[in-house]
Structure formats: structure tokens, C-alpha cells
Amino acid sequence: MNRVLRIAAILLIVSANIGCDQISKAVVRENLQYHQQVDVIRDNFILIKVENTGAFLGLGENLPVFVKNIILSLIPSITILALLLFVFAKTNLSQMTVFGLCCVVGGGIGNIFDRIAHGSVTDFLHIDLGYVQTGIFNMADVSIMVGMLVLLFAFGKGRGAG
Asked: Where are the domains of the chain?
């Protein structure tokens, strides 16, 4: 793949992940009240708006603001920037690896943007299948998880590099 097309593909995948995340959060912020619950598929797939000032499942929400900003904004921002530079620099990565990394980067940017712009991350998706249920999450979290699964699959199949 030529260099310009490769860069365009990377930016498109990252932007699509950010866009899906930010649009879905904007719709939720505009249309749901805090803790308002909407049953999409009975009580198995639920929309419920929460503002998460911590990390996963609210971990760290009681940390001092300075420490929280370093742990939840600065370090992730540096990590995401490093991943993005890695994807641009390493031209021998497989397409699957590039896709997975771009999903992780896009999801990470979506959540970091929320922390900086809103002071919290808007979470709104909840799955409850009885014995198996999730915490409340968002589309950025989905992007990150899909990206990680793609990376696990790529490296499991020996396709990390092209």
C-alpha cells in the first residue's frame, strides 16, 4: 500500500472510531437524564446515562484532582500518541494489526477528549444476560475492546507484522 493511502486509511479508521463514540455520547447527553434508563431489548440491553469521573467502573474517582489528571488524562494521552506514532512509523505491520491499533487509539482519544472537555466520561451501555453482565460502558470502550481482540487474534495467528 502506498504511503499516502496508508496514512489516509489510518486516519480514517481512527476518525471513524472517534466519530462513532462522540456522536453516540452527544445523543445520550442530549436525550437522557442522569441515571435515566431505557430498556432497548427488555432488561438485557439497557441505555443508562452516567458520568464517570474515574477509570473503569469508577476506579480512582476519589483521587485528588491533580493525581487523577495525571493518571487518567496525561499518561493515557502520551500512550495514545506513542501508539499512533508507532502505527505511522512501522510500515511492516499487518493490516489486521494496524486496524486493531487504530481502534484502540480512536477509543482512547474518545474517552480522553471527554475527560478534558467535560471533566468525566459519559457511559451509557449496559448488557445484562443474567449470570453475565457488564459495567456501564460506551462506544470508545467498545472500540478499545474490539481493537484488543483483533490484536490478540493477529498475534495469535502470527500476523503481527506484514
From this structure: 3-156
